[in-house]
Every structure is written in C-alpha cells, then in structure tokens.
Amino acid sequence: MTPASLFDLFAPRRLARAAAAFAMGFTVSQSQFEALGSGLADIRARGVLVCGVDTGLPGFAQQDADGRWQGFEIDLCHAYAAAFLGDSERVRFVPLTSAERLTALADGRVDILLRSTSWTFTRAAQMPVTFAGTYYYDGQGFLAPADLGVASARELDGARICVQASTTSLLNLNDFAGSFALTLTPVLAETPREAREAFEAGRCDVITADVSALAGLRLSLPEPDAHVILPDIISKEPLGPVVAARDPRFAEAARWVLHALITAEEYGVTAANAAGLRDTARSPVVRRLLGTEGAMGEGLGLEADFALNAISARGHYGELFARHLGAQSPLRLERGLNAQWSEGGLLYAPPFR
After folding, report:
1. Rounded to the nearest 10 degrees, how much is the dihedral formed by the CA atoms of 123, 37, 81, 249?
2. CATH class of the domain comprising 140-235
3. Distance (Å, whole) CA 168 – CA 229
4. Fewest Cβ atoms nearer than 10 Å: which of 35, 99, 298, 331?
5. Which tens digits make up the pLDDT trace of 343-352?
C-alpha cells in the first residue's frame, strides 16, 4: 500500500476525531490537530479518561463505604482528566490485580495505569508500555508481629513470607534471600487484601510489600500497635504513571501533567490560588505554567491551560501527598525521598520553558 493510500485510509478517522473534539468544545490548533491521531484523541472522543487502579490500597486507591474511590492515585487520575478533558470528573476507575495491570494497559482496556507500578528495566525494555515519570519513591520492607522478636529482616531465616504474586516484591524477596543465604518460603497472594488475610490467619509469619503499602496495611489490622515495620529497605521502587508504548506523544503529555503538579508545589501554586495567579503572577515560570504566556501544551495536543486545570482539580503534588499520605493523614508518612529537590528529596521537574 502506498503512502498516499495509507493517508486516504486513515484520513476519515482523523477527521472524525477532530469533529468529536470540536463537538466537545475543544479548540484545536494545527499542532493539536496532528496530535489527534494519538490516544488523547480517543480519550476526547470518548469523553472519559479510564484509569487502571489498585483493587484496594489505603492511601493510594480504595473505595469508601459508599463505593466512592479515594486516594493519592485517584486524585492523580482526576488531575489527568482535568488536563486532558477540562473536567476532573470525567473519569472511570478500573480496579486491576498486579497480574493483569500491564496487560490491561497494552490491550487498551485502560488509558493510563496509576497503580503502584514500579519502573524497572525489564518492564521498560520488554513490555509494550512507557513509564511517564515517578510520582512516588518507595522501597520494599517487612511487617512483622512485635512479639516475633526480630529487629531485622536478616533474622527471618526459615520464615514464611506473605507476598503478592506477579510483582517485583516477589523477585526482590528472592534476591534478598539469596544475598544473605536465608531460607524464606513465599506464601503467594493475588491482591493486597488476600495477603493481609493470609497474614492475619497465620498462614505466614511476616508480610512484605512496599513500605507505603505496609503502613496502610498495619492500620487495617485489629491491633496496629502489635505490629512493626522492620528497618530494612531491600529495594528501590519508583512508582509512576504508565501508558501504552504505541503512543510516545501521549506519554509525553502524561509526563508533563505530572511535572506540572510538581512544579506547582515548588512555586506555591495551589488549588485555591491557581486561577487568580494566572492573571496576577509576576513569575515568568508561573505564567508559562498556567498558560498566560505561550501555549506550551499545544505541541502535545493539550490546551494552553492544561496545567491550570490539573492543579485546580485536586491541588499540587504536596497537597495530594498531605491529604492521603502525609503526617496528618491516617498513614502518617514522612515526605522523605518524596520531598522537593530543594528540601532534600528527589522530586524534580524539568523547566517549563
């Protein structure tokens, strides 16, 4: 088939996507029109952003008693919907197990994966997915009953360890056991809930997962104070948004929405003041961030105010962290590595320039 015939084949689809975008009230520039061949066009035509999330992880993604989703990753999904569609409520959450999450993304069942997924070499090199940054720097640890009497995971020789299957946690556990010549017996679970239930039932001695997940799990136990998170951190777990590799421009759009939330915290742009700062800010960075100067998002198929919409939806990165994970939340996690680069952490967004 010649290039001309290929164009003829796909031109109607492009025009249909453009018409759908116009019908929903989007103004489409030339650069944005070109981007309509991307996943962003599919999302706009559908009118809903579909986010793959955890089946239930305190602080990150879980349903309340009324079935409403809440958590850090849930708020991220709302921010993405605001950036892509101009409306933070145009979202649909699809709960996914660890085993099915990447397949669901590759198959197109979800648009973006916001589900405590670690960025690893194997996933980046061998799977049809793209990691669009890091929104939480985590590490794997161990939760043990206090009366087990161990001060370190290196004292767990012979122990049964509850761990989720199809995760880096299982691989890290095997590496840890091999490094210190420990005999550890994995007790596999498909979901965090199954792992917790096995732990509570005594089918394992200790449970291992990312430390952030263990903090939430500990709170859900009948006697939280009777359990301790051991000091050992046995891995690096950079958790980030994941999109299908077939669409590099959409991956960049997802990356820069996250950068916008991080930059907003650095420059003091909050959910409450973002709209006002768009017209009053003197900082050139803030003016570019909020779309006052230059239509920086157009190259990625985004509106000039994409960052303003994302920040206004649920707040900047720090607001999301404080609400769901921070010292005043039930999880009471320190910012640690997730603090801004200027405060000793690893959060660092490239310049909005």
Report:
1. 50
2. alpha beta
3. 19
4. 99
5. 999 999 999 9
H helix runs in the chain, sequence order:
3-23, 30-35, 39-46, 72-85, 101-106, 121-126, 168-179, 192-200, 211-220, 248-266, 274-280, 284-289, 306-314, 317-324
Task: Say if 3-136+239-337 and 140-235 have the same CATH topology.
Answer: yes
Q: How far apart are CA 72 and CA 166, in angstroms?
A: 23
DSSP letter for 261, please: H
pLDDT recorded at residue 4: 37
pLDDT one-digit tens code per residue, 183-203: 999 999 998 889 999 999 999
Question: Other CB atoms closer than 10 Å to residue 30's CB: what's the count?
Answer: 8
Confidence category of residue 38, pLDDT binned at 50, 70, 90 = confident
The domain ranges of the chain are 3-136+239-337, 140-235
What are the start-end ranges of the H helices in 162-316?
Answer: 168-179, 192-200, 211-220, 248-266, 274-280, 284-289, 306-314
Q: Which two tokens stand for residue 230?
A: 């051991």
Q: Are 11 and 54 in contact (CB under 8 A)?
A: no
Burial (0-12, 13-18, 19+ Cβ within 10 Å), 228: middle
- What's the whole-number mean pLDDT along residues 324-330? 94
By the 8 A CB rule, do 48 and 12 touch?
A: no
User: Structure tokens of 45?
Assistant: 């035509």
Residue 12: pLDDT band with limits 50, 70, 90: very low
CATH topology for the 3-136+239-337 domain: D-Maltodextrin-Binding Protein; domain 2 (3.40.190)
Closest CA to 71 of 247, 252, 333, 266: 333
Instruction: Say whether pLDDT at 39 is over 60.
Output: yes
